[in-house]
Amino acid sequence: MARKSRKANRRHPLATVVLIAIGLVVTGGGYALLSSTTTATADTNASSQETIDEGKKLFAANCATCHGMSLEGTDDGPSLIGVGAAAVNFQVGTGRMPMAMQGPQAMQKPPQFTDEQTAAMAAYVASISPGPAIPDEKYLQADGDATNGGELFRINCAMCHNVAGAGGALTEGKFAPELKGVLPTHIFEAMLTGPQNMPVFNDDNLTPEDKRDIITYLKYIENNPSPGGFELGSLGPVAEGLFVWIFGLGAVIALMVWLTAKSN
């Protein structure tokens, strides 16, 4: 009975080999995982540095004349220290920068740079000093609360941009641009950075969720035609009153002339 028990407790001859093999696999797998993670991090850092270096070259060639080589600003352009990547992406991405000519405000035009070049310059400016970052994609989907967005827009934006986002005139030759067809990224960045005469709506004024709701409202009215008929440019009572004066009173005068001529 004792001999049988001793045989049952005896280790199999291949057990040591199996344990060594398992140990080698676990050690090798862990080392490979650590190496790949380290390599990926190094590649990301290298790529980011390459992007910043490319942005620095583009900035020096196209922007430094007005904004200074160190972003300190000159007599022809403001300092860019602290504006962040969001301001660069908005100004360059909408074609407002570089400016074609000096004027009351920078005019929107076809962008001069590709998305990759714009992102490189934004990364370079952001690397010099911290500032508002390009918004997260989850706030740009126009899937928020359009009702809340409409209320926030009427309170904070409609006095300049019109309740339907049709734009409007300001003082000294400046104007609030039309918001139809504007990318959600640029709408968010405009609220975040306050370009031209626009005030800054930081996260204490309007949370990222509030900004998403405003984008949702603007895209809703853009994609849904007016149920009341011809919009007359969505410019409000001025355009509607002018229409009544020209066509309404014109029709009344024409009718009176016709009746007078017929009676004679």
From TrEMBL:
<keyword id="KW-0472">Membrane</keyword>
<keyword id="KW-1133">Transmembrane helix</keyword>
<comment type="subunit">
    <text>The cytochrome bc1 complex is composed of a cytochrome b (QcrB), the Rieske iron-sulfur protein (QcrA) and a diheme cytochrome c (QcrC) subunit.</text>
</comment>
<keyword id="KW-0349">Heme</keyword>
<dbReference type="InterPro" id="IPR009152">
    <property type="entry name" value="bc1_cytC-su"/>
</dbReference>
<keyword id="KW-0677">Repeat</keyword>
<feature type="transmembrane region" description="Helical">
    <location>
        <begin position="242"/>
        <end position="261"/>
    </location>
</feature>
<dbReference type="Pfam" id="PF13442">
    <property type="entry name" value="Cytochrome_CBB3"/>
</dbReference>
<keyword id="KW-1003">Cell membrane</keyword>
<dbReference type="InterPro" id="IPR050597">
    <property type="entry name" value="Cytochrome_c_Oxidase_Subunit"/>
</dbReference>
<keyword id="KW-0249">Electron transport</keyword>
<keyword id="KW-0812">Transmembrane</keyword>
<keyword id="KW-1278">Translocase</keyword>
<feature type="domain" description="Cytochrome c">
    <location>
        <begin position="144"/>
        <end position="222"/>
    </location>
</feature>
<dbReference type="Pfam" id="PF00034">
    <property type="entry name" value="Cytochrom_C"/>
</dbReference>
<keyword id="KW-0679">Respiratory chain</keyword>
<dbReference type="InterPro" id="IPR036909">
    <property type="entry name" value="Cyt_c-like_dom_sf"/>
</dbReference>
<protein>
    <recommendedName>
        <fullName>Cytochrome bc1 complex cytochrome c subunit</fullName>
        <ecNumber>7.1.1.8</ecNumber>
    </recommendedName>
</protein>
<keyword id="KW-0408">Iron</keyword>
<keyword id="KW-0479">Metal-binding</keyword>
<dbReference type="InterPro" id="IPR009056">
    <property type="entry name" value="Cyt_c-like_dom"/>
</dbReference>
<feature type="domain" description="Cytochrome c">
    <location>
        <begin position="50"/>
        <end position="129"/>
    </location>
</feature>
<keyword id="KW-0813">Transport</keyword>
